Amino acid sequence: DAHFGKGATFRARGLPVPGGTTADNLARLGQALRERHVVHLVFLGDFLHAREAHSPALLQSLHAWRAAHAGVKMTLVRGNHDSHAGDPPVSLRIDIVNEPFVIDPLAACHHPQHLPGTLVLAGHWHPSVTLVGGGAHDHLRLPCFWHEPGLLVLPAFGAFTGLGPIDSSAAGRAYAVAEGRVWPLAR
Length: 187
What we know:
The protein has four helices and twelve strands. By secondary structure, the protein is α/β, with parallel strands linked by helices.
């Protein structure tokens, strides 16, 4: 979940939040595309945060970013925010599909779900874990991957998306993301 334009949406609605998160997210995503020589990028929903994200400044940034990655095929699997924000402009050359988007043996979905015979990659939850240390205020909340048989929920990509706690009693396993690495956590 990228939630491009979330900060702009909040500011348009009168909430004072810092600017620059979309530019930072686009820079991080661009770097990841270049480093990994990506040929097809699939967004698991929530590309734009809300209708206010269709601002000229944000769309100009998205178009410049897309032009820099013109050789990468891009697909958006619609998520719940996409239904409110509307599809990104056709000029961004992003294919738009409904879930599930099957790329055997995977199924790309926005909403976590189980589909027989496939591993579902999903977003939506913005999963996180809280690590507790020895002190009374020694807590660290981190984004994480959540895995259970047939399902892998990815952390939100956007820096200003929020984090949703994972139910630690669920039959799965969390993998915390910190310092550019993925850390398996004990059950």
